[in-house]
């Protein structure tokens, strides 16, 4: 039995949306797809100069920790920022046809995951050539899925709320700035943060994902499954909240956009 027509339609909608996003990325800037690599590379260079050279805060493995932190942060930040405006930015399309509004952030989540998989592959090659691969790298797909779930949950909720409150985009920007400095992007929480504050910072699922990815890729250690379970629970709870908002307001958005 083939795929139902509606499911095929929505699958094609997402697929074509991803292709359109890639085309816009290529057309928007002169360097096109190169910015997928240049953005995290420039961010890495800035953090390395500031914290590793000027402030002399980096140890022997600092550059590897920084590679992991910047890669995951770039993925998370881009996903949330682009998802936030995905529904509001499709106002005209919603006036013409009906489709579940969650498809719009899903297009962004999928496209950013594909871009980030390229970055992750480059990261793995770099680490394999410098500190060698480890059997613990086999746990990476699990963290990859958790990263998609958490970043996607944050992006979906922001996208569903923005049409009601335009202030959401400013709140998202503020929270992302705060998150960059509290998620352990350019430092190890278990080495830099005083013990009494570590667990509080690790309540941020992104901080946990960065820390556990470093355990797997850099230290060659198995992840702490208790913290990964916590990330899963938080992500699923946020997705349930998103499902509730979608069920409640899915058909409200077209009317809301005309005001």
Layout: helices, strands, pairs:
Elements: H1 5-28, H2 35-54, H3 62-84, H4 91-96, H5 103-130, H6 140-161, H7 168-182, H8 189-192, H9 195-202, H10 205-217, H11 225-249, H12 253-257
Helix pairs in contact: 1-5, 2-3, 3-5, 3-6, 3-7, 3-10, 5-6, 6-10, 6-11, 10-11
Number of helices: 12
**Number of extended strands:** 0
Rg (CA only): 19 Å
Number of domains: 1
The major beta sheet can be summarized as:
none
Determine the fraction of residues in helical runs and give it as a percent range.
over 70%
Labels describing this entry:
0% strand, mainly alpha, 259 residues, globular, 12 helices
What does this structure look like?
The chain has twelve helices and no strands. It has 259 residues and is an all-alpha fold. It has one domain. Helix 3 (62-84) runs antiparallel to helix 5, helix 6 (140-161) runs antiparallel to helix 10 and helix 10 crosses helix 11 (225-249). The protein is globular and about 55 Å long. The termini are far apart.
């Amino acid at each position: 039995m083939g795929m139902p027509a509606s499911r095929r339609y929505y699958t094609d909608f997402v697929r074509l949306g991803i292709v359109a996003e890639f085309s816009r990325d290529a057309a928007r800037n002169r360097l096109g797809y190169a910015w997928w690599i240049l953005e995290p590379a420039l961010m890495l260079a800035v953090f390395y100069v500031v914290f590793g050279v000027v402030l002399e805060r980096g140890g022997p493995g600092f550059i590897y920790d920084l590679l992991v932190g910047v890669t995951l942060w770039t993925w998370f930040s881009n996903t949330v920022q682009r998802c936030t405006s995905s529904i509001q930015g499709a106002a005209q399309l919603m006036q013409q046809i009906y489709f579940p509004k969650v498809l719009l952030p899903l297009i962004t989540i999928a496209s950013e995951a594909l871009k980030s998989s390229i970055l992750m592959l480059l990261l793995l090659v770099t680490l394999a050539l410098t500190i060698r691969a480890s059997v613990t790298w086999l746990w990476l797909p699990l963290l990859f899925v958790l990263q998609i779930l958490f970043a996607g949950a944050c992006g979906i909720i922001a996208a569903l709320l923005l049409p009601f409150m335009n202030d959401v985009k400013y709140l998202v920007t503020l929270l992302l700035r705060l998150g960059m400095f509290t998620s352990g992007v350019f430092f190890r929480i278990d080495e830099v943060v005083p013990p009494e504050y570590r667990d509080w910072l690790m309540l941020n699922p992104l901080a946990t994902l960065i820390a556990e990815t470093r355990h797997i890729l850099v230290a060659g250690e198995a992840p702490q499954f208790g913290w990964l379970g916590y990330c899963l629970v938080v992500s699923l709870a946020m997705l349930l909240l998103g499902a509730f908002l979608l069920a409640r307001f899915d058909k409200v958005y077209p009317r809301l956009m005309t005001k």
